[in-house]
Amino acid sequence: IGLGTLAAIYYALNQPSLYETHAALQIESASVSSQSSGMAAGNNGAAHRLTLIEQRLMARESLVRVVEKLQLFGDGPLMPLNEKVDALRSSVQIVQIKDGAQAWQPNITPSGMLITVTFGDPVMAANIANEFLGAVLEQNRKRKEERTQGALAFFTSEEQRIGADILKVEEEIAIFKSANSDALPNGIASQRDQLGTLRETELEIDREIISASSNTS
Known about the structure:
This protein is mainly alpha-helical. The chain contains six helices and three strands. A three-stranded antiparallel beta sheet has the order 1-3-2. Helix 3 packs across helix 4. The relative contact order is 0.10.
């Protein structure tokens, strides 16, 4: 038993050390509540976006960028780039964080993403986790920027369209007022004043006719 224990300790001490680090991302809830008809679609959309992010992070191009930026596996024996990429892929695990209490629900909204890195160097393991975390944040920033630019372009075009419609309607109103000025409220009031003046003038003329008729001279 003593020899076996010593052999086991010797074997364990001669094994390469592995360090595990984690980076977690939390998904914020939408500031605008979704309608009940689109709630399931929103839940599936969050899971789908996380799956796309995971696929982009684990793509060969992304892994090659991390290997070259951090100069991974450069201190050991010469390794081909494909083997470095495979080694990094096997060292990184990305899972969606879900509430276990809601496991019975068919569509569970993920609450975040957990990036786990297992590597022989603790500092490098943290650097790799931070690199993946930064890539996720950068993708999210670009996506928000694209959505914001698209919304801005849409509202700008809508502003121009509505402004053109307003000018068109104002021109139509001006033409209508010019063609029907007498039938408009302001024109009717003016016509009433003119009619009153004409009636007063008519009465004055009638009085003059009566006066002239009574005065034969």
